[in-house]
Design a protein that fits this description.
This protein is mostly helical. It has two domains: 6-77; 98-171, no CATH class. The chain has six helices and no strands. The chain has helices at 6-16, 21-40, 56-77, 98-118, 120-134, 140-162. Helix 2 packs antiparallel against helix 3 (56-77) and helix 5 runs antiparallel to helix 6 (140-162). The chain is flat.
Amino acid sequence: MTAPSAGAASGLRARLQGRSELGVAALLAVIAIVIAVDTANIRDTAINAGVMGPRVVPTIIAIGLGLCAIALAISVLRGGHAEAEDGEDIDLSQKAHWPTVFGLGGLILVFALSMDFLGFVIGSALLFYGSALLLGSRRFVWALVIGILLAVGTFYGFVLGLGINLPAGLLTGIL
């Protein structure tokens, strides 16, 4: 067996130059494989045996991700590439505003840690309100009203629509 020549390696490198989207396609393929393997390990029991079963949705997602990975790889290898973002209303030369980034991260952490005590509705409303203020909203009352409406709507969507109980926290007995 002979070792590949340096010319073949540099030819492959030249063909792949500027095709970083192949990395995204590879990531999609890996995620699809992980989901497919995990889906294959789901066991049917009397509790989860229904019309569709517990494997249908993850299988659809794995197949969809796999098809997207294949389509993206083919598109990139045929010469297609995404155009660089110019940004819609942002100045790409400016650096990130770290107080906002860390503030949002802190809000999410507080939300996760206080979910059992405060409950989903209060925690989510405060998360939305705090996020709106951190991102520059000056309509204080309107942001709070929207946060409450989204939180209550999401809570009842999960509880009544999907049958998934979310923690009520301080509002136990009221919701």
